Amino acid sequence: DANRQISEYKFKLSKAEQDITTLEQNIGRLEGQVSRYKNAAENAEKVEDELKAEKRKLQRELRTALDKIEEMEMTNSHLMKRLEKMKANRTALLSQQ
């Protein structure tokens, strides 16, 4: 009976050691995953920061371009008015002759 119990305990010990080995392998695998996910998250944050900086730069460029367009439209409007005045003066001069 004692030998049977010893055999049973040896079997349980062997099974527990196998379980421990399996769990240690799982821990190693999970630590690797955590490391990869952590690196991926850090890279994603870096890319996000770069994209935010690029967005700010593009928004500044857009504002500058819109301001320039507005300025050019005002200049164009002013020049069109001057051209119309010049045409009117020319027409008036031609009609006087």
Give a brief description.
This protein has one helix at residues 2-96.
What do these coordinates show?
The structure is a single chain. The protein is an all-alpha fold and 97 residues long. It has one domain. 98% of the residues lie in helices and 0% in strands. The chain contains 1 helix and no strands. It has one helix spanning 2-96. The mean pLDDT is 97. Residues 6-89 form a coiled coil. This is Leucine-rich repeat flightless-interacting protein 2. One of its GO terms (biological process) is Wnt signaling pathway. Keywords: Coiled coil, Wnt signaling pathway. It comes from Furnarius figulus.
* Assembly category: single chain
- Our Rg estimate from Cα atoms comes to 41 Å
Roughly what fraction of the amino acids lie in strands?
under 5%
Whole-Å distance between the termini? Answer: 140 Å
The structural domain count equals 1
Would you list the SSEs in sequence order as H and E? H
SS summary, helix count: 1
User: How can the largest sheet be summarized?
Assistant: none
**General shape:** rod-shaped
Pfam families: LRRFIP
Family: Belongs to the LRRFIP family.
Protein name: Leucine-rich repeat flightless-interacting protein 2
Coiled coil: 6-89
